[in-house]
Structure formats: C-alpha cells, structure tokens
Specification:
CATH superfamily of the largest domain: Intergrase catalytic core
Number of helices: 13
Structural class: mainly alpha
Number of strands: 3
CATH topology of the largest domain: hpI Integrase, Chain A
Oligomer: single chain
Strand order of the largest sheet: 1-2-3
CATH architecture of the largest domain: Orthogonal Bundle
CATH class of the largest domain: Mainly Alpha
Helix content: 40-55%
Distance between the termini: 98 Å
Number of domains: 2
Strand content: 5-15%
Order of helices and strands: HHHHHHHEEEHHHHHH
C-alpha cells in the first residue's frame, strides 16, 4: 500500500519575501490592476529567476555590480522569450529600480541601481485642428461627434471619458468641469470650455436613450439582446474613431489616444504652462511630457517666447 507523502513547499528567500512585501505595498498604494500585474510579472518572472540563477537570496547581495550584470543580460541575451527591445529593457529595469528604491527606504542593505539604456526619440505624428474638425464632421451621430470633440479638447484618456456620468459634470462659478477617475482610481477635475460643457450636459441629460438604467454618458447604440443598453467600451470607441478617419480621408493611423497626444501638443504649442497641463491630463509630473513630446521644435519654443513678450506690451 502506497503511503502519501507530504512535501513541504520550499521556503522563500529573504529577497523573495521582500518582493512580496513590495507588491503588497504597490497594491495598498492604489495602483491600477494593470500596473500591479505588470510589476508582478517583471519581478516574479524576470528579476527573481535571474537572482536565483546568480545565487542571490538577500537584498544585501544586490550591489551595483550585480545590478549591472542583470541589465547587461537583458540587453544582450533577452528574457524568457528571447531577445528584448531596448524599450522593453528600459521598462523592466525602471520597474526593478522602483523596487530597489522602496527596499532601501524600508531598510534593506542594497545600493544597486540599474542604468537605464538610452532610447531613441520617435517623432510623434499628431492631428492638427483642421483634421480634428474633419474627423468630427465625418462621425455619423452626435454621440460619436461629441466623443471625438471631448478627446480632442480635454486630453482625456479614452477609458476616463467612457467612464463619466451625468453627475460628474459640475460648475464652480464661471468655470465648468468634468470629474474623471484616472490611473490608480485617482479623481481629478478637468476644465471644459463652456460651449463644450453645455453640449456634453445636453447630451448627458437629453441625448441618451430614455429607457436605460445605465449611468454612463456614452452608451452602445443598440441594446443587449433582451436587456439594457451597456456602456460603450474601448474597442467600440476605437473602431468608431477609425471609421470616422476613413470617411474623412485622413491618411494617418488614427486612434483615441492620438487625440490626447494632439491636444497636449496643441496646448504646449499655444504656450500653456506644462505643470498646469500635466495636472489637467493626469500626469503626476513632467516626465511623460518631457519624454513623449520631443516632436515640438525650436520654432515652437521661439514662438512661445515671442508670445510672452507680445503679451507684456
């Protein structure tokens, strides 16, 4: 008669326990589900397996030489699925640095910090204001026209826009705002020009289907079989924007996030304060603006400076 044997699970190393504590910290800090899953994937599937192969079981072993070896291996040999792009390596090492920085603050004796590989800056192609007007004109319904105009004139992420409800619209004196829930479930008030606010308010209160219990402003155009209307999803919004671009004859790859890029570019070229702009679009600091909007030229900078002197006269 065979006897069952109880096999004890291997005990986790101090470093593995520290990573688990960090991921719990990330969760308690309110990071989004996608962010938590990405951090967990990088640390548990890439960073910790490398540490095990190197015989690293404690954070004290993660000195600069060890972290440099980790970065070199990612660049030269890749990850579990093969060669990695420099962008992927940059992202993985940046995530590892987040963990190392937290570990040091928590008292771990580690002084290593990954050196991030330099990335080539891509020119970001955006839509100008005439193309945005053509895109809106080509949209077949008021729902679609309003969705395009909101993306183009507020800089909202598509997920933020699709999540708004009528009660999220509010006024403060002469100013008009929509309250959105951004990354990490952080709420912020985004200002809208009065005409656009009035248009959104009118659609939210009178333009949606009357026989629905859904609270979202932007709904699918058809009911579910035997049921209620449901909120328009990201895939449906992306398809709508692509179709409008085809009808407008815009020979660019057009997608909702491009309208956000176009808004930020337009605002920066108009001389808007980058700190105020970052607050409006939900960036925690200026890192994204500095890294992504390198397509702004020296002519843009000169024009902004001349505008300052003109306003002084």
């Amino acid at each position: 008669m065979n006897r069952l044997r109880v096999v004890e699970a291997p005990s986790r190393t101090p470093l593995e326990l520290l990573v688990a504590d960090y991921l719990q910290h990330v969760r308690s800090a309110g990071k989004s589900r996608k962010t938590r899953e990405f951090y967990s994937s990088v640390l548990n599937r890439i960073f910790l397996p490398w540490c095990r192969r190197e015989g690293i079981a404690d954070a004290a072993q993660l000195d600069q030489a060890a972290i440099d070896r980790f970065g070199t291996e990612l660049l030269e040999e890749g990850g579990p699925r093969g060669q990695l792009s420099r962008v992927s390596v940059h992202t993985y090492l940046r995530t590892s640095n987040f963990f190392l920085s937290w570990a040091r603050a928590a008292g771990a004796a580690t002084n290593g910090k990954a050196q991030l590989p330099k990335l080539s800056r891509k020119i970001l192609e955006v839509l100008d204001r005439s193309e945005i007007r053509a895109l809106e004109d080509a949209a077949p319904t008021e729902r679609d026209k309003l969705l395009i105009r909101m993306l183009a004139d507020s800089g909202l992420r598509i997920s933020e826009l699709l999540g708004i409800r009528a009660q999220d619209l509010h006024e403060k004196g002469r100013d008009r705002f929509v309250r959105v829930k951004g990354k990490g479930d952080k709420e912020r008030d985004v200002p809208l020009q009065p005409a656009l606010y009035a248009r959104l308010h009118r659609y939210a209160t009178k333009g949606r289907p009357a026989d629905t219990y859904a609270e979202n402003v932007f709904l699918a155009l058809r009911k579910r079989p035997g049921g209620d209307y449901h909120a328009l999803d990201v895939s449906g919004a992306e398809q709508m924007v692509r179709s409008a671009a085809d009808r407008a004859g815009i020979n660019k790859r057009v997608y909702p996030h491009l309208l956000r890029h176009s808004f930020i570019t337009w605002a920066l070229r108009g001389g808007m304060n980058p700190l105020q702009l970052a607050r409006i679009v939900g960036h925690e600091d200026l890192t994204m603006i500095n890294e992504v909007y390198a397509h702004l030229t020296s002519s843009d900078a000169a024009e902004a400076l001349m505008k300052l002197f003109h306003d002084e006269e």
